[in-house]
Amino acid sequence: MKLENVAVSNYRTLQDVSVTFRGFYTAISGQNNAGKTTLIRAIRNTFKDNMREIVFFRRDSEVTYRDDKTQWVSGTPDISFDYVISVDRSDDPGLFLFLEKFNEQPLPGSTSHLRLLLSYQPSDDVACTAWIDGREQSSFASKEILQKLTSSNLAFMHDSADRGFTIYGSRGRHVQELMFSPDEMKQIANEQRRVQSKIKQISKGHRAELSALLGHLEDKYEVDFTIPDGAFSGTLPFSINLRDKNVDVPLNDWGSGTKNRTHIMMSILQANRIRSKDDENKITPIIIIEEPESFLHPSAQAEFGRVLMDLANELRIQTIVTTHSPYMLCQDSIASNVLLNRKLTRGRAKETEVVAVSEETWMEPFSEILGLDNAEFDPWRGVLHSSKQRVLLVEGDIDRKYLEHIHSLEFEGFVLPDGLDIVPYEGKDALKNTILLKFIIEKFKRVLVTFDLDAKPELERVMQQIGLEEGTHFVAVGVDRSGKQCIEGLIPERVLSKVHGQNTDLVMQLSAQESRDRKSAKSALKQKILAEFKSDRSIAIEDLRGFAPMFRVIGKALG
Question: What DSSP designation does 545 have?
């Protein structure tokens, strides 16, 4: 099952909001109180996790008209939730066949679309209307479909900020504790040891699958399940132990970041087990995670963000996250990022609005989170959208073409590492924003920054401010001679002489009074030198000796 669209009216700050979900991973961002959690509540109102929650008080996601109607809207309009859901014949047969029964005829194709409109009235009565592939259903059928959705386990919710488990009651509070006599405790302990042994036998598959999911992380753990002491209810909850370097530690004794990631992985594990099993009644759930970056260092956020996106697409399980971290935003698909904002009316924040994110405004969610101007992101679009994990940042596209051409010659010592992405950042000034540069560096596993040698006096201190070391994280390109403090300074002299001799007008234009003329001549000469270098069939390994130090650093840093 996959949510395609949710439209909400007159619910808290969501006076009139429509959100479209594209792909299997969606990141919802925005400032505090922008409406992210309210949107999640609107989703969870219908798509619940009944298997996990034993709640003895009113759920946060339950709707009452008096408490939840948008305060500044006059009159008594209904609160409405309008969902559009795609249902897959193979992944969601339990729901697909259920809809087909009410449709009174076979559903064509492998995917059907269900629209469900819920209207909460001032009397707290709820009106429900359903459409199957655009065909409106009867009142009876609509209510049966709603009951099917609300009674199934269709949303695995993980709130990183909520440290409690709702199985114990509202917000993790224990509702009741049973007291046992010493003799009773002894009897239970004997039985628990036998059950523990049996659990280890039958849970091998579960442990192996969770280990495989955790294997996407750089930190490697082995997994073990145990019954927590004192847990003897019919539901049989589990504790999780993680072994790191042969030390077996209960999950509760690990840091908050490790606990948070592991509980999220458990949600993914359970959702994937449902999707993968051969059961005609199964419905693939969605996963909702509030602030998955909680308790994680930025570098760990970057890694975990990559893992969540990769797993969502690999397992084909819809994952919706709310986030304040740029690392959790989707960089592969602009449309997968949803940015929420609150409109200001007379200086007061009122209704939530969806900020349009398009090809032209792709940087809006990033700039909102990092607090930067949109224009500062322009040179970095190629970098942010790179799917590789080892990245060589070069000042311009010409630098990239030189390195790729030399690599194609296959000379020993002049071959780039496999799986490397060379990305231009369009000018040295892009490196001067340390906030953005640090975000870029931490996004990838390995990054090497290159810049022209003549920019080193300006940029060396910038590199050091964010902890980058020369020869490991950055390298200056060129020869320490006038006019050669750039990548062209590494080119064989005969190539330079030939181009300069054939283009004396451009060479003379380099001394023009107008800076525009000088830049134009410099750009034109760069293109001609590159073209001549690539067309020279006599290039030998000795002609590349100027590039040798650069390729050694690339191999060491990114190999």
Answer: G
Helix axes 298-315, 434-443, angle to 10 degrees: 50
Identify the H or E element spanning 126: strand 126-132
CA dihedral (219, 225, 228, 234) positive or negative: positive
Q: CA nearest 8: which of 39, 50, 46? A: 39
How far, CA to CA in Å, does 321 sit from each of 154, 262, 296, 325?
A: 16, 16, 15, 11
Six token digits for residue 345: 């009316």
The strands making up 247-250's β-sheet, listed across from edge to edge, are 222-226, 239-244, 247-250
Alpha helix stretches (DSSP H) within 350-413: 364-370, 381-384, 397-409
- Alpha-carbon torsion (155, 158, 161, 167), positive or negative: positive
Q: pTM for this one?
A: 0.81
Q: How far apart are CA 14 and CA 73, in angstroms?
A: 11
Mean model confidence pLDDT for the chain: 86
- On the question of pLDDT at 242 being above 70, the answer is no
Alpha carbon of residue 232 to chain centroid:
38
Q: How far apart are CA 10 and CA 74, in angstroms?
A: 10
Helix axis angle, 515-535 relative to 493-502, nearest 10°? Answer: 130
Percent of the chain with pLDDT over 70: 88
> What's the CA dihedral at 390, 395, 401, 402 to 10 degrees?
-100
What confidence tens digit (pLDDT) does each residue in 510-530 have? Answer: 888 899 999 999 999 999 999
Half-sphere exposure of 175 (CA within 13 A, CB side): 11
